[in-house]
Amino acid sequence: MIIRPRRLRRTPVLRDMVRETRVTTRDLIFPLFVKYGKGVKDPIPSIPGHYHYSADTVVKEAEEIRSLRIPAVLIFGLPEKKDAIGSYAYKEDEAVQMAVSAIKNKYPDMIVITDVCLCEYTDHGHCGLIKDGYIDNDSTVEALAMQALSHARAGADFVGPSDMMDGRVGAIRKELDRNGFQDTGIMSYAIKYASSFYGPFREAADSCPQFGDRSSYQMDPANANEAIKEALLDIDEGADMIMVKPALPYLDVIRRVREKCLLPLVAYNVSGEFAMIKAAAEKRWIDGDRAMMEILTCIKRAGADLIITYFAKEAASVLLKEEKC
């Protein structure tokens, strides 16, 4: 007797009925870049289709995101000024804080997450404060807690520490609770590798290190067991969601963390991954839409509950079109 698995692949309707993994618009988080100023909507060359917004123009973008049934945004900010200690990161009238307030005032049901890190705010481009030529962990954690608190005061639903300093989740949780923000969640970049796939983002965020690299605080791409350790530490410190970043080269890590973690698991489909697909599609080497949906499906299949992706709007358009068919 011949076993015939192809029976279940015979027609589009049948394939859809037995599909094991589904991506929906509810799974997607859209990254937004905001900068200090008014009336700003400047294209980001390294991330096609994305822009720098000011707090007044980002609300219109939020409206479009909502219309595509994408429930959440992740906000990154460019400050008015940079200095050695990233002091503009926690000013209440800076770009991120004003953008959060503007979006939540207009669309209170939209989930607004903020990136908590100093790399966009320091003139040296590192994610922490420098002491004797080295990134000092504990003084950086104090600054990050102040930044997270300023985002919570602006109305953020979640803060997302992406710096990879030790102990920062616990310090942020303590600072939020001490100031009455017990309901503000923490989406921890628990597992963030020192990856070569961040290039377009660093141009967009003006956050390239002016010396050295980030290998002393971001994870070694060769390590997977360490990812489990980092996830469990952040869970113990009070994280509400755990992230793996980047996504595509680390699908095995997503799977391993999924098996150990009961919290919602987020994967970040980062700018370099986005850029590769865009560049290949532009040259007509691949079908861009099919590659996009295949990638997102594979990230979900690996175990991610939510996906931060620069494809979010394009993917949502595809998904909504499929619903109507």
Which features characterize this protein?
two-stranded antiparallel sheet; 18% strand; 8-stranded parallel barrel; 12 strands; TIM Barrel; 11 helices; alpha/beta; 325 residues; globular
How would you describe the overall organization of this protein?
This protein has 325 residues and is α/β, with parallel strands linked by helices. It has one domain (23-324): Aldolase class I (TIM Barrel, Alpha-Beta Barrel), CATH 3.20.20. 40% of the residues lie in helices and 18% in strands. The chain has 11 helices and 12 strands. It has helices spanning 12-17, 55-67, 95-106, 137-154, 168-178, 199-204, 225-237, 251-260, 271-282, 288-302, 312-324; strands at 28-35, 41-43, 51-53, 72-78, 111-116, 129-131, 134-136, 158-161, 185-192, 241-245, 265-269, 306-309. Strands 1-4-5-8-9-10-11-12 form an 8-stranded parallel beta barrel, surrounded by 9 helices. The protein has a two-stranded antiparallel ribbon with strand order 6-7. Strand 4, helix 3 (95-106) and strand 5 form a beta-alpha-beta unit. Helix 3 (95-106) runs parallel beside helix 4 (137-154) and helix 7 (225-237) packs across helix 8. The longest helix has 18 residues, at 137-154. The mean pLDDT is 94.
